[in-house]
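One example given next:
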Amino acid sequence: MSAGLRGDRRRLASTALAGAIAMAVAMGFGRFSFTPILPGMMGDLHLTAGDAGLIASANFIGYLVGAVCAGQGWGEGREKTIGLGALLATSMLLAGMSLGSSVILFATLRFLAGLASAFAMIFLSQIVLTRGAEAGNAHVQSVHFAGVGLGIAVSSLLVFLVTTRPNAAWPAWREAWAGSALVALAGTALVGLLLPDGAARSGHEAGQREAPLLWSRAFSTVALTYGLFGFGYVVTATFLVAMARGQAAHAVAGGQMVEFLCWFVTGLSAVVSLFVWRPVMARFGIVRAYLCALALEAVGLLLTVTLPFPLAPILGGLLLGATFMVITAFGLHLARALSPGSERKALAIMTAAFGIGQIIGPLVAGWLTERSGTYTPATLAAAAVLMLAAGVLALSGRSIRAAARL
């Protein structure tokens, strides 16, 4: 192997690692650290499930606004600077959460964190994924998005260590937010050192005008299922640890350990999910794999409210982690395949559909939980929505495969 080829591989590996760390900071910490920290906030500040749903939805609204703004083309050539600025903002906003006490302040901070997460995800992913595509290396994408699961697992471990530490000067949830900010800041520095300066440019990235998006029946169906997925996954992704705490209240012991394990397992399974599902996609095709992942995630939601403690939250978390990044990747892949010549517009529509679903999800879940006093109705509703998405896809699978030429 020539020295030049070895150097290219090292640079590509460094880029993929930088992408994974960026996703860990922007998504694993910036978006999903809220889940393991939420039960402590609810207990200490007497927040209701409705309050928690409002705060969560504010984050998702910020993500939707950020995704729409980032897709307008104004950041071309400045991807690394904007992305690193967004990661730095994420760190500062995580620190801000450790100082708040009101729902309005929390919602504002989470809205801004959603905005920053979207900017970091879109601009830094553009660098990493275009470099991987240029090199013809499919593993770069898998490593990059595995960072989301890595961030979830690390944030879960951090929260567990903080909450089990004796003689803490601060409430544990405040220390968890502050610790998350420090980890995110360190991750931001690593991304700055490892990431190359810009995205590879070709086609539309070089300035060619995209064709208008063709709203075919196949594309509309995939966009609908993606929006339903946004609603279905987010209920468990927001309230899983809170659900575990509620179930643990009726158990003899082991509550804190189960809270940690259910979210930690979610993260670990998300890390390996894209690698595990790649052979499934190769064997059965991306449409069938997408359908199976939706159905399996629905099963995971049902397990969280039907199995006994502690199996319910742990197996539910395992199946959530094993599917949600896979559904994300497969759904976006299908949208691009169904929209040749207008891929950016297709991704913007998919992001909007997903964003609307995940904004509505926590609000509905919070309302149902407050009325019923349990997370079971909200979880069953989320599972039903995911099964609806799978059913719609099953009815249209043949036409989608034909339209996408897959």
Residues 141 and 243 are 32 Å apart (CA to CA). The chain has two domains: 10-199, 211-406. The mean pLDDT is 87.
